Write the structure tokens for this entry.
Amino acid sequence: MAETDPAKSGDEAPLGVPGTGENLCRACGGSGRIRAEACPDCKGTGKVITGIGGA
Ligand SMILES: [Zn+2]
């Protein structure tokens, strides 16, 4: 399955980088929407790539 996910402004790293993973978008709380608009940070997906701390 080739997922071509364009970079989102809420991403801290590209998908697949070690030490990072998909997390709920903090801007919209994972809903993908802020009020009636698609969340700009996650582009409406509700998920962003962030570093996984504590390694
Ligand atoms: Zn979002």
Remarks:
- The beta strands are 20-24, 33-34, 37-38, 47-51.
- The pocket of zinc ion is lined by residues 10, 25, 27-28, 32, 39, 41-42, 46 (CB under 6 Å).
